[in-house]
Amino acid sequence: MKHWIKYAIVAFICLICACKKDKDITIEKQNKKPYLTISKDDIILNKENLNSKSLKLTWTNAEFAKTGKADYLFCIESSKDKNTAKLSLTQKNTESIPYSKIKELLTNTLKLSSGDHTLKVYIIARQNENNIDLKSNVIDIKFIISPEENNTEESSDDNKKDTVDENNNTDNNKDSDENNNTDENNDGDKNKDDNVKERVEVKPTFNINTSDISISEENLNEEINFTWTNADFGLEAENRYYLNFICNELNSSASVTLSGKNEQSFSLAEIKKIAIEQLHINYDKIYTIDVNISSEPIIENNTENLKLVSDNKQITIKLIAKKIAIKPTFSIDKNIISISEDNLNENITINWTDADFGLKAENTYKLNLSSEENKSTYSIELSGKNTQSFTYEYLKKVAIEQLHINNDKEYSITVNVSAEPKIENNTEELKLVSDNKLITIIVISKKVAVKPTLNINPTNISIGDYNLDNNLVVNWTNADFGKETTINYSLNLSNSINNTRTSIDLTGNNTQNITYEELKKISLEQLKLKYNIFYTIEISITATSADNTEKLSSTSSTFSLIISKDKIAPKLTISNTTINLSNKEKYNSKSLIASWTNADLLTDDTYSYKLILENSTANKKISFDINGNSKSFSFEELNNIKTELGLIDGNNDINAYIYVNAINEPSNSTKSNKINITITLEKQTEIKVADIKGYNLVGNMFEGGELWNINYIDYQLFLDNVDSKEFIFIANFKENAEFKIVPEEDYKEWDHVIGMIDGQLTWEGGETNIKKISEAGYYKLIFTVAEGDISNYKLSVEKLTTAPKTYTAISIEGSALDNPVSLEKEQGLSHNWFKKNVTLKEGNLKFNLDNTILNLSNSFNYGKASKEAAEITIPAELAGNYNVYFNDIEGYYIFKKLN
User: Mind listing the pLDDT tens digit for each residue in 382-412?
Assistant: First the structure.
């Protein structure tokens, strides 16, 4: 225990240290009390359980501000006289105390007699060396002490012995003895009565695992659980227990015999049955129910009507009725039914979904047909499982005999599906009916040629680029050539203005969708329609027999059609938007490439294109006639026209526009999008170089590495730029890291390094290690140098909240190198890289992090690389050999020139 507390205190102090920043923060540790839980609410102490049962204690450890050994005591306190019985606990965090020991504490220490006693229990955590007691939470427990049973036979024998001895006394004492015997007998009877009165009856207690019961059809299999303690009548007999429910609101009650051993579960289905049949509870209303446990001894002739009842507990019960009735839905695979002698074996199929009455009962379904014209109805009982087919022969019989349909005439028939539950005495006449559908039925009396009929929707069509996914819906009835043959259908379209016509093969089953995109293509290519003109299109359908010998055409109808379109301008793209005309080596032979998509001027003629460069500020414009869809400009061509655009050497850059004009005729043209381009003469970025004395770290701050080697200088501190006074170091530090800062000098001595005493940087040697990092993790050190004394220098430590990205390979590349150079990782670090003795020449230079390119800033030897930085060129005077250091977390770099 002592070691455990010691480790906990050390961990806590480390946590406090990790929260410090620029200066130390001291937090005083607080005492924390233990927390006690027990296994019982009421404890009955009688001869049956004194040696067989125990009270189980569990507790949390106390936490002391001062270190030291802690002992634990179990305490029972009498609220009347404030006496307390205490028992030392020998186990750790849990202990079981026998009932016999508990009775000894109550009777011997607290001097309690038989009966019910509600006492307070708690534990005390004690540090004797620090004289500290921490008291846990207090729990009230009812202790029931049963009376001791008297041995009546022994009492009787003793009385007899006393009587014999007294009879042997002299006659002179006889009267006195008789009187004495009489008194003693009276005392015996009195003691006997006293024993009867001291018999204590202990009523049962019980628990239920929920106080709110909500019952629906979905949770009838769930259970609630009752547990109870035994009642005690002071008799040598077992007891019978009953669970009782009382609803005062309905003046009703119910009782259930309990058969479990101190525990029994009831399903919600059983509770629902009790609630409905005995408590008379209605659905969808919350009732408050009193619940108790009663007990009777199992004895013959219970003339005293002995009964013990627990205290009431209240629960709420709600029965949820399934109210949502779901009507069936259905579909029919044909909406036009033409019945003839040739197709009586064909079928129609009905599919339907189940209705739901909220009852546990199957449903019966009927298909209902009605003819409003004939005022007739008929219902067919459906026997399939959500699907059923009927032959045309059966449907014809129903149509003629029940719906009174005449031959050779179309009838609109209303169809729906109804559902009724299979229950006895459906007094509510429960019924659910689907939505209606309309079908057309015609019974053909003889074999005659029947031409198809056609219907289209919509009849006014406007087609544009915005609605090409819309459809023209074509519906038709079957033709009949009066013989068994396959029939093919085609849709006929004609334009009387252009005297053009075309046909579309129909492949659907009495219905087909033609997209506006298909209709547009047919109209433009085959009917020769023009854009933005209204046309009236004649339309019909033709049925052709399989042998192509017979045709039947429907009656022609018309629909209006217009195909709308705006002129489509060409879309321009260019290879780059910034063109530098001072350094040809930076560009290939084609410095600018412009390309564009075709224009559409709503004519069939060919178009010509002009590419235009325009400087509106200087009122300069150059136009190029183009054949095709692209134009390339070489470096020389752009230099030749720069003056025409207004660019003069030494002047500022110019901003110009480039665009394309598509022309069909002088009055019919359209322009592309305009793209802004910058044409410039390159200006060399000024590169800053400074002679800066650097710093490096030494210490045990990393896993591995050179540790306390003062001559290992590769843990270099970085700068944002040569003008900065803040040196940066970012890395993954280990736990309880210690280090010092070593200045870059020709000599290395431990008395000339920077350490820290009481949060202040110092040049003093010895035990002055910097100890600002106690928890392992990624940290950023910011070391600020200043003029004057070391007391003006600062060191701050910031912990990174997220782990940085890890790279697999980092290199430097560019024209300043003969070949790309791969960097190596520093010892013990995963984000600091270096390379010794790298030869640089005049040219550009950049870092490559797993194909992510970072450019140097304009600070050469110290700086911070980024994607946003402009590419710089290292001048010839900076050529030479360098040691390169790089941090991939924020892009810091150092190029340290070698002598």
Answer: 988 899 999 999 999 999 999 999 988 999 9
Task: Please state, for a pLDDT cut of 70, what percent of the chain lies above it.
Answer: 87
More confident residue, 701 or 15: 701
Q: Token pair 């399939």 is at which residue?
A: 384
For residue 41, name the pLDDT band (cuts at 50, 70, 90).
low
In tens, the pLDDT along 351-380 reads: 999 998 877 788 999 999 999 999 999 999
0.85 surpassed by pTM:
no
- Distance (Å) of CA 205 to CA 138, 231, 814: 21, 8, 87
Q: Which two tokens stand for residue 482?
A: 């009066």
| Torsion, CA 718, CA 724, CA 726, CA 731, rounded to 10 | -20
Round to the nearest angstrom and report the end-to-end CA distance of the chain: 63
The first and second tokens of residue 649, run together, are: 């050497």
**Cβ count within 10 A of residue 526:** 15
pLDDT at 590: 59
Spatial separation of the C-alpha atoms in residues 493 and 526, rounded to whole Å: 10
Token code pair at residue 687: 């590169």
3-state secondary structure of 109: helix
Backbone angles phi, psi at 374, to 5 degrees: -100, 0
Neighbours of 572 (CB within 10 A): 19
User: Is the separation of the CB atoms in 1 and 70 below 8 Å?
Assistant: yes
Average pLDDT over residues 873-895: 93
CB contact at 8 A, 198 and 146: no
Lowest average pLDDT, out of 19-28, 78-87, 265-274, 563-572, goes to 19-28
Task: Name the band, by pLDDT with cuts 50, 70 and 90, for residue 616.
Answer: confident
Measured CA to CA, the distance from residue 648 to residue 642 in angstroms comes to: 7
Nearest to 832 by CA among 740, 716, 743: 716
How many whole angstroms separate alpha carbon 787 and alpha carbon 744?
Answer: 17
What Cα–Cα distance (Å) separates residue 576 from each residue in 237, 245, 584, 626, 678? 103, 87, 15, 20, 9
Sheet of 206-208: strand order equals 206-208, 223-228, 263-267
Interaxial angle between packed helices 152-167 and 174-197, expressed in degrees from 0 to 180 and rounded to the nearest 10: 170
C-alpha 365/C-alpha 419 separation (Å) is 5
The whole-angstrom separation of Cα 610 and Cα 664 is 12
The rounded distance, in Å, linking the Cα atoms of 553 and 836 is 92
Joined tokens for residue 631: 């134009």
